[in-house]
Amino acid sequence: SELLNSTGSVAGVGVDQELISSVPSWNPTFVERNFTPSEVEYCRSQPSPPASFAARWVGKEAIFKALGVASKGAAAAMKDIEILPDPETGAPQVQLHGDAKQAAEAKKIEKVLVSLSHSETVAIAFAQASTSA
Amino acid sequence: SELLNSTGSVAGVGVDQELISSVPSWNPTFVERNFTPSEVEYCRSQPSPPASFAARWVGKEAIFKALGVASKGAAAAMKDIEILPDPETGAPQVQLHGDAKQAAEAKKIEKVLVSLSHSETVAIAFAQASTSA
Amino acid sequence: SELLNSTGSVAGVGVDQELISSVPSWNPTFVERNFTPSEVEYCRSQPSPPASFAARWVGKEAIFKALGVASKGAAAAMKDIEILPDPETGAPQVQLHGDAKQAAEAKKIEKVLVSLSHSETVAIAFAQASTSA
Asked: What is the pTM of this model?
């Protein structure tokens, strides 16, 4: 029934981790290929830009897992997922573009949540994709 | 409609990690400020109290992220989130108090789930906040 | 009402981590006791079998936490949870058997999601159990 269709349901989850030192955020080509201009601006404004880039990198990988599609690694598709802080709370918000947006729409995914964390050495992220609520 | 309002939906997720050694559970002021008496009693009864305190610490941080409110770090607000084992299963259960409870109610969050894990060196937690089911 | 009963709701979450080196996948008795034949075949076909076995090990622990039942550690029950890649996407899919299946049915859990990640040294997993959607 329509009522059932309009209830939310978790479609997928994703977790990812990386050593911060293994994400080459010192490499301008890598950064330009994988992060949007707004993400770059945000990460460069943070106390530890390498940690911020790494946290977003694992966030994007976790979101690909939650969407149930294989990421293309260092290819352009990582840029299709944009993670920016909510202006009020600072909590990370997800915007999908391009192929990632199409994949989500094909699976009727309407909400993608992500949380990021980094210690001094490791960045970790968790993501969750839900159908319409 | 009322039916839609009565379906549950995940409102936020949170992940956090810390080196166990970076959570100063040997400091009585830190412990008293951030943990409830029941939490202190439980953590001190465990095989590794530093690991148990650290797991709860990251649990509280993860819950703040899932609630979408900024934590106040070492301030008193951490004590507003209480994580105690279920008497039957041992699984961690969340009770909100004070400001954390008010923040959750304002967002219509009715269920907060958390899971904790620690290795010998690192504590990690995942939390999820849902609206009414 | 029936409509309410037919909406999905997250019943539990679980996170777990281990050093890859602490999961004794070189031990045939350990492997035979804790992994199904299909899991063994899959892990042995991967670039790093120890990492794949460790990721599945923490995945099983995370699923036990999400189900809200205590795992039996190195006992046979770990084999009741089978994690195999989706043939199309490669995403890990969960099949419950035996006691784990009964525990899930008793709690009306109909969907178990899991995500796995490993770095060079650490394996981590997140699991989520939901009631019927």
From this structure: 0.89
